[in-house]
Amino acid sequence: MEKKTVVIDNGTGFTKMGWAFNPEPTYDIPTVISDRQNKGNVQVSKKEHSELDFFIGKEAYTKNNDMNYQLFKPMSSGIVEDWDLMEKFWHRSIFDYLRCEPEDTTFILTEPPLNPPENRENMAEIFFETFNAEGLFIGVQAVMALYSSYYFQKMQNQQVDAQLTGTVLDSGDGVTHIIPISDGYVIGSCIKHIPLAGRDITKFISQMLKDRGETKKFPIQDLERVAVQIKEKYGYVSEGDLAAEFAKFDKKKEKKDGTIELSKKYKKLDFTGHDNKQYSLDVGYERFLGPEMFFHPEFLDSKYRLSIVDLLDNAIQGSPIDTRRNLYGNIVLSGGSTIFDNLGERLEKELNNKINGRIEAYKLQSGINVKPIEIKVTANPFQRYAVWQGGSYLAANDNFRYHTRQQYQEYGSAIARINPVVQPGM
Asked: How far apart are the C-alpha atoms of 220 and 409, rounded to whole Å?
């Protein structure tokens, strides 16, 4: 009998969830909950769940104009901040979206790197005490992404290390992490992060639209939604020469009728406003300036000066010396904010320039020849769902082990502090 397994990847901005053994999640919804102002009065119970007066995902946004409801975000920078709200979010997810019976279901949940052990215990208490789940496994998001990348490369008939070693660049809506992993274990002391990600790119694009007066052409209430559409539909990473990129947009051609034709780099965004009217605007520099945050974070916040290339290099250089070549040779992109065109290519190029420059300087200084370091950045068509997909592949592994309800009843929530690593090549 095939075991029933559900994978839930909760992110700051979006939650991906669905049944394991599939290549993509069934649902990808905003991690938001709309609850009554006195949210503490609503009790979560398995029974009568359909009558509970709170809503999640896109449905939560429909309550925006109802004065009795308030919109809450239970997570920030990848960490659960409000466990009561998170429990309610999971409740709707399990019973209304996935429509599963927890007593017969094993759940694979994901967590950010360096998630406090107490948070794992909270997860175990909620899933075993409230939902009476059959089993629970909590996997580090970066390891799940590496798992997904392993199987993707294997399906492409590429030679790949079966020992789960690589560096994951994970950027979602709330935070960007760089996580070196060796043999399936996170090298915790070398993790780097910047609290800049998709949400900050959206804010940056919104400000650019305001500054150039585009918000006079459509209702201000639609600004964030428009910025998200621009980011997701037209955003890309430049080759690195910003002056040359600006010049591409500044090329204009006068037509025979005297009108000016904009560069083909400009795109037109047509959309329906919240008032159901049609609007249109030209999309220009924001196409590449938003994603440029990976290489010039000071554009978004002057506190941050190190580019993603510097952080990647620092994370790997801080790792044990015998792991570094493998960490450089398997850099994996994960998360919705890494799907911009040309991101992987530019990362690879700039890392090569940085490392080759260092090697050449060492050769000149010491006279010793050093074997070149191969740098490989791996993109995946499913990298927006890479973490979820990794959990799905994990469930299909014959060696997959999880904590059972019986173990929880015998040993308590402390069992969730440790979850076994399963090598894909086993």
From this structure: 53
Do the beta carbons of residue 230 and residue 269 sit within 8 Å? yes
Asked if residue 243 lies in contact with residue 217, where contact means CB atoms within 8 angstroms, the answer is no
Backbone angles phi, psi at 88, to 5 degrees: -65, -40
Is domain 145-195+305-378 classified as CATH 3.40.50.1000? no
- Rounded to an integer, the average pLDDT of 173-183 is 92
| Residue 133: closest CA among 6, 14, 252, 274 | 6
Q: What is the pLDDT of residues 261-279, one digit of tens each?
A: 777 888 999 999 888 899 9
CA 145, chain centre distance (Å): 10
Phi/psi of residue 215, nearest 5 degrees: -70, -10
Exposed, middle or buried: residue 253 (CB in 10 Å: 0-12, 13-18, 19+)? exposed
Fold of 4-140+385-417: Nucleotidyltransferase; domain 5 (3.30.420)
> Computed from CA positions of residues 299, 269, 212, 240, in that sequence, does the dihedral angle turn out positive or negative?
positive
Please tell me the distance from the alpha carbon of residue 233 to that of residue 295, in angstroms, as a whole number: 20
CATH of region 198-293: 3.90.640.10
With 70 as the cut, is the pLDDT of residue 402 above it? Answer: yes
Residue 38 confidence (pLDDT): 58
Burial class (CB in 10 A: 0-12, 13-18, 19+), 42: middle
Q: Which residues contact 303 (CB under 8 A, 6 or more apart)?
A: none
On the question of pLDDT at 234 being above 90, the answer is: yes
CA distance 27 to 62: 18
- Helix (H) / strand (E) element for 311: namely helix 308-317
Beta-carbon count within 10 A of 161 CB: 16
Query: Per DSSP, what are the bridge partners of residue 156?
Result: none
Contact 245, 288 (CB under 8 A): yes
Parse the chain into domains and list their residue ranges.
Answer: 4-140+385-417, 145-195+305-378, 198-293
Q: Which residue blocks in 62-116 are alpha helix, DSSP H?
A: 83-92
CB half-sphere exposure, 115, CA atoms < 13 A:
28
Give me the amino acid identity at 56: I
